[in-house]
């Protein structure tokens, strides 16, 4: 079979530990035999971030802006222990945080569903995608532990000398205070990313806040979403037969549980943090979640939702063959290649990505899987636990048949 040719390079961001090993295995086993892979390679592994004083992360994010599509391996976010382990000169920032700040995006996470592993919620038949706003609110709040009686006020002084002052509370004893903020520009780009992603994936979009109680703060989110939807997206949604739907967060929670799935749920920063853990756990496992960062300018960064699987890596270093699950990382590759094919008009790349994902799901549905999935397996054939490499070779055998 002739390999599929690419025209524009994919931005390839390599990473750390076990996922770095899986990265190479995925390329060798199920990509390079089929695709004449064209990438611009950035090594975001911690040793190279240290060598370049983290410049490589910034360069990779800028390349993502230049070419539009990137695929990223999981990376270590250093803490004190990692500074020692890797002999770092600085506790480098989270690469995901750096990339997000440069691309200004929204993170979309969706479960990969297979027959034989059922969601805890019985009515869920299709994936639920969580879209999390990743800026501001409680994550950038100013807090104060009130020591005793006194007056707390909210004060704003505009550069044009506008002033606002209102009493928050007259404290008669000790307590706590918190000041949160967000920006219209960030909320707007969050909204546009969500509307764009709904169109890209042809799914309804739900958005929920607590605007009945938070009449300025949350209401601003609601209003900005509605204004942008009416002005820029309503016609496109109508044409595609999809819907934008706003409701209160408590109503949304109840509806999500009763739903069949198959929609995008846009969440404010804190709601998204909490709800994505709830939804992913209810669907099965982080190793079966896709994650993509979409910027309002239409740049895409595909990754796995899990980390570098450190515990498995230490076993691997001792010479053990591990049964780490490569599915989320493999779907990051297929997602990125499909998007590249779409943008460049290379249909063969999209067909290959579809076939690769189908071969992966078929492999699991036939009872062949990594250790993490065995515990959840309810299929008819008993589960056969294989190593990561054996699993990828099983996928390859099915892919060969499909593409023949
Ligand atoms: P983790 O790498 O996600 O792994 C936590 C545990 O979850 C593993 O020990 C393993 O359980 C299970 N697991 C996760 N992914 C798996 C997979 N693909 N296959 C099989 N089992 C899987 O989280 P962590 O140990 O908290 O973090 C490790 C490093 O990853 C940290 O340095 C952190 O900074 C980094 N991290 C990076 C990202 C990212 O780049 N996106 C995200 C999160 C964390 P068992 O050991 O029980 O088998
Ligand atoms: Mg969380």
From TrEMBL:
<protein>
    <recommendedName>
        <fullName>Isocitrate dehydrogenase [NADP]</fullName>
        <ecNumber>1.1.1.42</ecNumber>
    </recommendedName>
</protein>
<dbReference type="GO" id="GO:0006099">
    <property type="term" value="P:tricarboxylic acid cycle"/>
</dbReference>
<dbReference type="InterPro" id="IPR004790">
    <property type="entry name" value="Isocitrate_DH_NADP"/>
</dbReference>
<feature type="binding site">
    <location>
        <position position="250"/>
    </location>
    <ligand>
        <name>Mn(2+)</name>
    </ligand>
</feature>
<dbReference type="GO" id="GO:0000287">
    <property type="term" value="F:magnesium ion binding"/>
</dbReference>
<dbReference type="InterPro" id="IPR024084">
    <property type="entry name" value="IsoPropMal-DH-like_dom"/>
</dbReference>
<feature type="binding site">
    <location>
        <position position="109"/>
    </location>
    <ligand>
        <name>D-threo-isocitrate</name>
    </ligand>
</feature>
<keyword id="KW-0521">NADP</keyword>
<feature type="binding site">
    <location>
        <position position="77"/>
    </location>
    <ligand>
        <name>D-threo-isocitrate</name>
    </ligand>
</feature>
<keyword id="KW-0460">Magnesium</keyword>
<feature type="binding site">
    <location>
        <position position="273"/>
    </location>
    <ligand>
        <name>Mn(2+)</name>
    </ligand>
</feature>
<comment type="similarity">
    <text>Belongs to the isocitrate and isopropylmalate dehydrogenases family.</text>
</comment>
<feature type="binding site">
    <location>
        <position position="132"/>
    </location>
    <ligand>
        <name>D-threo-isocitrate</name>
    </ligand>
</feature>
<feature type="domain" description="Isopropylmalate dehydrogenase-like">
    <location>
        <begin position="9"/>
        <end position="395"/>
    </location>
</feature>
<dbReference type="InterPro" id="IPR019818">
    <property type="entry name" value="IsoCit/isopropylmalate_DH_CS"/>
</dbReference>
<keyword id="KW-0479">Metal-binding</keyword>
<keyword id="KW-0816">Tricarboxylic acid cycle</keyword>
<keyword id="KW-0560">Oxidoreductase</keyword>
<dbReference type="GO" id="GO:0006102">
    <property type="term" value="P:isocitrate metabolic process"/>
</dbReference>
<feature type="binding site">
    <location>
        <begin position="94"/>
        <end position="100"/>
    </location>
    <ligand>
        <name>D-threo-isocitrate</name>
    </ligand>
</feature>
<dbReference type="GO" id="GO:0051287">
    <property type="term" value="F:NAD binding"/>
</dbReference>
<keyword id="KW-0464">Manganese</keyword>
<dbReference type="Pfam" id="PF00180">
    <property type="entry name" value="Iso_dh"/>
</dbReference>
<feature type="site" description="Critical for catalysis">
    <location>
        <position position="139"/>
    </location>
</feature>
<feature type="site" description="Critical for catalysis">
    <location>
        <position position="210"/>
    </location>
</feature>
<dbReference type="GO" id="GO:0004450">
    <property type="term" value="F:isocitrate dehydrogenase (NADP+) activity"/>
</dbReference>
């Amino acid at each position: 079979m002739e390999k599929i040719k690419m025209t524009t390079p994919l931005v390839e961001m390599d990473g750390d530990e076990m996922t770095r090993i899986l990265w190479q295995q995925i390329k060798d086993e199920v990509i390079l035999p089929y695709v004449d892979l064209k990438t611009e390679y950035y090594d975001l592994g911690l040793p190279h971030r240290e060598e370049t004083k983290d410049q490589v992360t910034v360069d990779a994010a800028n390349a993502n802006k230049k070419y539009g599509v990137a695929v990223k391996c999981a990376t270590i976010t250093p803490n004190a222990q990692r500074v020692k382990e890797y002999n770092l000169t600085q506790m480098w920032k989270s690469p995901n945080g750096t990339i997000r700040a440069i691309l200004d995006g929204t993170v979309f996470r969706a479960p990969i569903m297979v027959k034989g592993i059922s969601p805890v919620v019985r009515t869920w038949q299709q994936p639920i995608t969580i879209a999390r706003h990743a800026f501001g609110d409680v994550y950038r709040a100013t807090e104060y532990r009130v020591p005793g009686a006194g007056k707390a006020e909210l004060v704003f002084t505009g550069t044009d000398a506008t002033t606002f002052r209102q009493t928050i509370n007259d404290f008669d004893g000790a307590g706590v205070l918190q000041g949160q903020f967000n920006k219209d520009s960030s909320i707007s780009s969050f909204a546009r990313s969500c509307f764009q992603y709904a169109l890209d994936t042809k799914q309804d979009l739900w958005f929920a806040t607590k605007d009945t109680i938070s009449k300025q703060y949350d209401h601003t989110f609601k209003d900005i979403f509605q204004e942008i939807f009416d002005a820029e997206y309503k016609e496109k949604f109508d044409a595609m037969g999809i819907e934008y739907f706003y409701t209160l967060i408590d109503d949304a929670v109840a509806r999500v549980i009763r739903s069949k799935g198959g929609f995008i749920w846009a969440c404010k920063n804190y709601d998204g943090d909490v709800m994505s853990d709830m939804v992913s756990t209810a669907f099965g496992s982080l190793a079966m979640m896709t994650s993509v960062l979409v910027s309002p300018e239409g740049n895409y960064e595909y990754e796995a939702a899990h980390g570098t699987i450190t515990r498995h890596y230490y076993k691997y270093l001792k010479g053990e063959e591990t049964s780490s699950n490569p599915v989320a990382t493999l779907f990051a590759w297929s997602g990125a290649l499909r998007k590249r094919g779409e943008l460049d008009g290379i249909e063969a790349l999209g067909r290959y990505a579809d076939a690769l994902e189908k071969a992966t799901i078929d492999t699991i549905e036939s009872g062949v899987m990594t250790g993490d999935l065995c515990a959840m397996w309810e299929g008819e054939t008993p589960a056969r636990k294989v190593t990561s490499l054996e699993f990828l070779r099983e996928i390859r055998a099915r892919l060969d048949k499909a593409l023949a």
